[in-house]
Amino acid sequence: MYFAEFFVILLDVGRHSLPKQRRNPSVYLVSALAPAAVFLAVKGDAGPVATIVDEEPVAAPAPAPVVEEQAVPCCVEVVAAPATGAQPALLTDPGSAEIASASLVSASRWRVVDPTLPAGVAPERGLQVRTILTARSISAEFPEINNIGGVRSDYLRWHPNGLALDVMIPNPSSQAGIALGNQIVAYVLGNAKRFGIQDAIWRGVYYTPGGARAGGYGHYDHVHVTTTGGGYPDGDEVYYR
Could you tell me which residue ranges the ARB-07466-like C-terminal domain spans (predicted)? Predict the structure, then answer.
């Protein structure tokens, strides 16, 4: 009996002690808020967490770098590596050795162009200086021309006074002949100021530096060229290209 009453009393004490423990909320509140506080501290601040020492916050020291930074030099000069192959030998010996004949080949390829115009196929007797310049230039530019007439008797003054040329065209009715005559007309008109060109006549067309007009002018086998003359030569003239 005494044992049964002691067990009942012990159970009764246990039932009354558990509610008393539940009535103390501080234990449960602290245990619930501690993880939340840690979570808010981690989410709210990504920096170092302050340490509480004597109730005053002290910042934790910054973590040491994992890898030590190495200093990079300010300026780097890139120097080409020296050639490892053999140096080329001199083409010619600067001493007493004779120069090989092969070294003179390139010199023979140089061509000196004379800036002066030699006499062409036109007889220059009686021609004026601008007419001579035109005749020589045509001969130099069109070597296929082998006949240029100059001074001759005529009822007009151009040929007798040395102001006109007759540039004879090989095969003048062929396509090649017509094309050659056209090129000569274009050439003298393109140099009208230098040659002193007054007019040119070819295949019925009368050409001037200011334009052309067609109809009834003949000249189907040669290009007639008239200059402004410039006076008769005295023998000391030099004609340039």
Answer: 125-215
